[in-house]
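Example record used in the benchmark description.
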Amino acid sequence: MGERGRSAVAASRRLLWITNLAAPYRKPVWEALATDHDLDVRLTSHRDAPDALGRGEDWFDLGSTVYRTTPLRVRAPAWSGNHHLPLAAGVSELVDGADIVVLGGWEAPVYWQFLWAARRAHKPTVGFYESTLATQNFTRGPIARMRELFFRALDSVVTPGLDASTALTAMGVPSPNIYTGFNAVDVTTIHDNAAAMRSGLDTRKPAPHRFLFLGQLVARKNVASLLRAFSELPDSEATLTIVGSGPDRLGLELLAAGLPGNQKVTFLGPVDSATVPSLLARHDTLVLPSTEEVWGLVVNEALAAGLHVVVSRHCGVAHSVQEMRGVFVCESGASSILERMQASTENWQGHVPEPEILEHTPAAMAAVFRKAFDAISPSVDIVD
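Model output (structure tokens):
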């Protein structure tokens, strides 16, 4: 492979994708798109940026043989006062080399730069919007108006679920311009790896029910309510594993130490993505009790591994998975979390062998993007 990733390979379109970080869960979607597109991913953030804090090393792995990932040359404008609002250099040149510009955000000036440059160059633009009406920080005022203007200026917008599409409709984005997918992770690999790891475990002796939380230890994740709910479980043999890091860890450990059943709670700290299937294979129910969550991809991962899931209705994923086997939707209060954890235990009949989430692959999400591309730009074969 040469510098541009593929040599003498036909690609239907040249995609310029602007986003903050190389999220591990997004990479399989990019790989699927790169099978028939020339994909150039440009990143607006870096290791020390606020949205990178607490991320694992896999978020900074830029290697790929099928698409390119390159940090943008960015600078903070003097009026911003911090580096969370970057301005990019060389925007016009990047846009001129693309057939379609994909914008993975809107809140920083860098995304507006690329939108304006694309409009000047008459290049089609596709947005990606994940927030729901419940997770939008601004529902009125100048910031809400700016958000509406941004997304109504795009040629099309892709969302990962129905709740995000509803939020776009409320902004005045025409329904024909909205393409609804299903937020995806590499469910097949997670399922196969978890099943293989589980096959090597001794299942002859019934084990106590094993609950798992996996995520950042920050206030909106609502782990304190989970700990209080767990301490009230009638099943005194059940265990709870807390995996992740964040500013709330010490306080949560102190809270757990003062609650009944504290000896059944284990704090593991952060793990990398390669460890997740093994971790899931050794647990029965994932709990995601967030008070606010744009999606919650850990739910996809847990379902792919055959686990039950207790998920707050405040998570964007809840609406999309609520009819699947082993899913128990709760409120964010400890009493509701406790009730649904008990329901998971009482309905436990073993790991789900062929979960419905396996239909929602990165390739399926990539196909939604292709529909959005087809609607605004004809396919043009090019050869590097």
